[in-house]
Every structure is written in structure tokens, then in C-alpha cells.
Automatic annotation (TrEMBL):
It comes from the Eukaryota. The keyword Aminoacyl-tRNA synthetase does not apply. It comes from Arctia plantaginis. Residues 1-18 form the signal peptide. Residues 33-142, 165-292 form the C-type lectin domain. The keyword Disulfide bond applies. Keywords: Disulfide bond, Signal. This is C-type lectin domain-containing protein. PANTHER family: MANNOSE, PHOSPHOLIPASE, LECTIN RECEPTOR RELATED (PTHR22803).
Length: 338
């Protein structure tokens, strides 16, 4: 019996050992949580959670609710509960109907004010309100425990591939986006728009691009062009990487013949041709794009090192403690945010 218990324990710890995810998420026994302190509209919040490998959190169980309430200090946050397909029909993102979730409404809620409220907030007292989806609020992303561990690129996303020549990982996005959205997507994935620092890296980009024939690229008529991480810094009249260096200083500044041509006087964003040569592209036009990721950024944590990573707003600690009915909590101030 004792031996059996030991085996079970060892297996348990072996399993726990393999639980790894980005450190900006807090580990709990039901999954990983990240409070997003920058308010966003509900659509943007949902997208960002999705890109980070999670979902917009909803208080579906008492445990979920209490962990969510521990994670924020505002008066309310967006939940994943919304009526996105038909008015008044509230579901979580995973499709759980509101009716199946134990909940209590805040006073005078839901009121569907101006017939314009289709999203639901969790308030700091644990009650719900219906609110407009387009008014930015903070929110929590949640990732269930899963057997999918992070790969050599430090992400569970299998589309990031490690390249030994540069010690970086790359992901080619075939769904075309404009520069701003492409930048957001790479950032949320823990990466950045690819920056070419050498001939060698240009060659890697060319080789990856070649794996995706024109037909694979969706949503762009420019299937031989992809966004990468540089743009025109007008104030200083120079092409600059998104990390602030001139592209010459960054190590690669080979424009294609005839480029930059500033076509229609609106090309201020950096793109690359299949040849690996640079082009100025329209910041508003959708192109495929390359993300680049450093394998150890954002840092990856396991369950052991990352259980006690609660976030509190300094000014609200007292109020928060009152709500929790406790003064003995071990308050840990947030470290650097990645
Ligand atoms: Ca309301
Ligand atoms: Ca051009």
C-alpha cells in the first residue's frame, strides 16, 4: 500500500513537473490565469486571450469565480459571457449558457441599457452586470491545464519553428493582416514582427516563405509580400526596426530594385518579397506576416515556481481585503510585466 502511494505520488509530481506555461500567467490547481490591466473592448480581449493560448475567463464555477475575484482590483472586469450571435442569448466562449452558471446580478441589472448591452462583467463583489461590449475594460485570460507543453520555442504553438543559425523561432502567418494587427498578433503570441539582422536571416525568411505557395495566403492580393518588423520613422526620415534601430544598424537593409517607391504616397510600413529583398508597403493593406520569437521570452514557468503571483493594485489593497474578509493574505506585488 505504502509503495503504491509512493508510486502515485511520484507519478503525480512527474505530471506536475511537466506543467509549463508563460510566467505572466499565474498557476493554480485548475489552470493558468492572467489579469490584463490594459483595458480592451470585449472583441479585442477575446482575441488577445485566444492568441496567448487561452480564453477570456468566465466565472463558470465557484472556484473559477473566486480565483478571478482574487486577480483584479478594478470595480469590474469583462467575462467571456456575451450575447454575440443573438440578442439576450448569453453564453461563455466555450458555449456554456448563462442559465447553467450560478450567478447573482448587481442591483438593477441586467437592464440592457439603450438596447446596447451584450457583454457581461464580473464585479468586485462577485455580481454580474450587462454592459456595452465596445467600452474597454480589463479582463482575465485563462488557460486550462492541458497535456500540451511548451516546445523548444517556449510556446505551445506548434507553428513556431526553431532555426539553429539564428537561435530564434519563426512563425509565418498566412491569414493576411495590416501592419498594426500583425504587430498585435505577434506581440500576443509572445513574439514580435520579424526583424532581419543578417543575410543569413534573410535567407531563413526566404526559405520559410517558399514553403507557402501563393494559394496558401488568405486575404491578400499581394501574395509575394509579407510584413516584417520595420517602418518609416518620418520624424527622422529613416527606415527603423520596431525595436528602434535603423535597418542599416540592425544588419540588413537590402531593398528590392526600385524600392522603396512610396507607391501612391502611402507606403510607410516594412515588408519583404519572396526574394528576401525589402519593400515599403501600405500600412493599411493586408499582407501575410512573419513573427519572430526568442525561445526564452516570455519566460516559461512551471507550476512550482509560479503559484503565488497574485496581482493587487496598491491603492485598493485595503478594499480588496475587506471584500475577501481577510487581513492575513500574503500579498505579492507584481514583478515586471512581459
Ligand atoms: Ca447594464
Ligand atoms: Ca513599395
Amino acid at each position: 500500500m505504502f509503495i503504491l502511494k509512493c508510486v502515485v505520488l511520484i507519478l503525480h509530481f512527474t505530471f506536475l513537473e511537466s506543467v509549463k506555461f508563460r510566467c505572466d500567467y499565474r498557476y493554480t490547481d485548475i489552470g493558468w490565469f492572467k489579469y490584463h490591466e490594459i483595458p480592451a473592448t470585449w472583441d479585442e480581449a477575446r482575441l488577445r486571450c485566444h492568441l496567448e493560448g487561452g480564453t477570456l475567463a468566465s466565472p463558470t464555477t465557484p472556484k473559477m469565480k473566486s480565483l478571478m475575484l482574487e486577480s483584479f482590483c478594478k470595480t469590474e472586469i469583462f467575462t467571456g459571457i456575451a450575447a454575440i450571435f443573438s440578442k439576450g442569448d448569453y453564453f461563455t466562449i466555450a458555449g456554456i449558457p448563462l442559465a447553467e452558471i450560478s450567478h447573482e446580478w448587481a442591483p438593477y441589472e441586467p437592464d440592457n441599457k439603450n438596447n446596447a448591452e451584450n457583454c457581461i462583467t464580473l464585479n468586485s463583489d462577485g455580481k454580474l452586470s450587462d454592459v456595452r461590449c465596445d467600452e474597454p475594460r480589463t479582463y482575465i485570460c485563462y488557460r486550462e491545464h492541458s497535456n500540451v507543453d511548451v516546445n523548444v520555442c517556449g510556446t505551445p504553438d506548434p507553428d513556431y519553428h526553431f532555426e539553429t543559425q539564428t537561435n530564434k523561432c519563426y512563425k509565418f502567418h498566412t491569414k493576411a493582416k495590416n501592419f498594426e494587427r500583425a504587430h498585435m498578433i505577434c506581440s500576443a503570441e509572445g513574439a514580435h514582427l520579424a526583424i532581419i539582422n543578417s543575410e543569413e536571416e534573410a535567407k531563413i525568411i526566404t526559405q520559410i516563405f517558399a514553403k507557402y505557395p501563393k494559394a496558401n495566403i488568405v486575404g491578400s492580393i499581394y501574395q509575394d509580400i509579407a510584413i516584417i518588423g520595420f517602418n518609416y520613422w518620418g520624424l527622422n526620415s529613416e527606415w527603423t526596426t520596431i525595436h528602434g534601430e535603423s535597418i542599416q544598424k540592425a544588419g540588413y537593409a537590402k531593398f528590392a530594385p526600385g524600392q522603396p517607391d512610396n507607391l501612391k504616397n502611402r507606403e510607410y510600413c516594412g515588408t519583404v518579397f519572396r526574394t528576401g529583398l525589402l519593400n515599403d508597403g501600405d500600412c493599411e493593406v493586408n499582407y501575410a506576416f512573419f513573427c519572430e520569437k526568442t525561445p526564452n521570452y516570455p519566460p516559461v514557468c512551471d507550476n512550482v515556481s509560479n503559484t503565488n503571483h497574485s496581482r493587487f493594485c496598491e491603492n485598493d489593497i485595503q478594499d480588496h481585503e475587506k471584500q475577501l474578509g481577510s487581513t492575513s493574505r500574503n500579498i505579492i506585488y507584481p514583478g515586471p510585466v512581459y
